Amino acid sequence: MRYCELERKIAMTLDRYPTTRKYLKYIYQRLNYLISRLQYNQALYLEPRVQIKRVLSDARLGYEFFFGYYDKCPWSFDSKYYLVNIWNRIEKDKIRLGIIDLDGHKLQIVGSTCTFNFQQGAMFQWLNRYDYRVIFNTLRDRNLVSIIKDPFNHNEIKTVPLPIQCINGDGTEALSLNYKRLYKLRPEYGYSVEADNFSSNMAYEEDGIWKINLEAGKYQLIITLADLMAINHRKEMDGAQHKINHIMYSPSGRNFIFMHRWICSRGKFSRLLMADNNGGKLKILLDDKMISHYSWVDDNSVLAYARREPLGDKYYLINTGTLECQIVGDGILDIYGDGHPSYSPDKRWIITDTYPDKARMRYLILYDTVATTAKIIGKFFSPWEYNGYYRCDLHPRWSPDGKNISIDSTHEGFRGSYIVDL
Fold it and tell me: Is the pTM of this model over 0.85?
């Protein structure tokens, strides 16, 4: 029931006409669903040796739970606690932030915020790898900021003057971007609230990536959109709308990667760049129009689903020093299309997922880099109401010990967060 190569090529051709593509895709998916769903009447399929449980065993009436993006870990450093964003349709313009005690299945509310989206929540995450402090984005005095809290002592430690996009491993530095520009160009990743310190139309010389010293509360703009437009400038950049997204620190925190994307009359263009943690030594890692999802493997390599001509759309392992690219799972992983990939802590396994197939099933896929084999360990139904802005990607994430996977899913008819026991 997967989409075939011809269907993907047609979708790529329509990239030049994003609005037309959006509506044609919706109609085509609806028609395929009516046909395919008759052949597949399960909401959940699991490989026989795999087990799954919802992080809260009781489905709390009217509330939905999710963690957010695939590059962050919901588990605490000792795997005792698990973070969730909590949303309900009555108070739909805000979410609550909670910590679940996995042993007692008890939920503690940490706070609430109106700065969130369904892909990444409020960037709610553990501050570091050795204690229970948390950080999340919010709005204070009409400014987008982030808050550091000690949740078990009910103590707000600090207000950071900018919202965060990612933090380094020891919780001393963060990187930020313009969530208002993101909301204008890709609402699934931005914030709808009005704010005085950001706008959707900031000058490109004043917008980009900010570095934040979390301890001192100081920040500076280290890379601007104007800087990026000047690097290997191409004609289709002129008059286009530009944005930055998906910033990720390397494991050591010495470097970071990010996506520069621009949208113009010729379609959507993306490239992957790397810089040191001061914004210097900018380097283009991938630049063949399409870069989608990626993650660090170690300090010297990145795994990405991207396009390289003439090889096409595949998973690539990129050496960030030499820029050498190696295809991962050629003819095995790429047959499923785009996904959210990451390596296990021991670097043997890759977990990734898919977008809905013709029967609205999302696949959870485990790839063995030694045996070079892929196994579908689960399929999860995605109801039509969870589409577009409200969609719920699986966003698989490894537990610290590599024995479990965290996902968000809607196969039970509501948004829930789950632990998959491997």
Answer: yes
